[in-house]
Amino acid sequence: MDTLFGFFSAFWGIFSFSFLVALTGAMAPGPLLTYTIIKSAQAHKRGYLMGIWIITGHAILEMGIIIFLLFGFSFVLKNILIVRAIGVIGGIILVYFGTSIVRDVYLGKIPTSFLNTSQYTDPEPPTHYENGLNNPVVGGIMVSMSNPYWWIWWATIGFAFMVQFDISFQNWPKLFAFFLGHEAGDLIWYVIVSSLTFFGIRYLNKKAYYGILVCCGVFMVLFGIYLGLSPFFKGSI
């Protein structure tokens, strides 16, 4: 009985701590948050589920990096050349995505017939908005990968957490608690964000809707430039 109690105590302890750490990080502004807002705003129906799909992709990537770290490759993510390469490639992806949003708003390619407004109606029924990051699961993976600071977090804070709590393949209950708690923290916040965005956007007119998309697109461009350049101002990690 004591052994069983100890097992659940350790499981929920790791789960809770991992959950809180992930939730704190998820609430910080970043490209994944901006991407979630954009995708939820663009959805014509069930946009409140975008947070689930995006975090599904994010979780797949994080499962991979946890396995990567458990095999002893944390030193790779601390290499400044690798971080710079990730920053440049990721920055290009984010700049492309942001400029695509701004361009399509300017060209009027984004349908707005789903908006609750009497000032504007589209002559054509809404069509599915196409973009290079159209699939939210794939987008969750790509946008997460594009952020070099996500890699740095896992190489430092994430890996330190795993060492501190003895997370390993052998201690699979701890590994499961750590992963489940981390993804639960991300999931709860991003479902809240996607739900508020999807239901709130219905009460906007066309100009306000386009304004939000342009602001998000510009933020994504600026964030991409920042992520691409900032690793070059650091000599080591």
Describe this structure in words.
- There is one protein chain.
- By secondary structure, this protein is mostly helical.
- Helices cover 72% and strands 0% of the residues.
- The chain has helices at residues 2-26, 31-42, 50-70, 74-77, 80-107, 136-145, 148-164, 172-201, 206-229.
- The protein is globular, with a radius of gyration of 20 Å.
- The termini are far apart.
- 37% of the residues are buried.
Features:
237 residues; mainly alpha; 9 helices
Strand content: under 5%
Principal-axes shape call:
globular
Kindly state the number of beta strands. Answer: 0
Order of helices and strands: HHHHHHHHH
Distance between the amino and carboxyl termini: 46 Å
What assembly state would you assign to the polypeptide chains in this entry?
A: single chain
List the helices and strands and how they pair.
Blueprint: H1 2-26, H2 31-42, H3 50-70, H4 74-77, H5 80-107, H6 136-145, H7 148-164, H8 172-201, H9 206-229
Helix pairs in contact: 1-8, 2-6, 2-8, 2-9, 3-6, 3-8, 5-7, 5-9
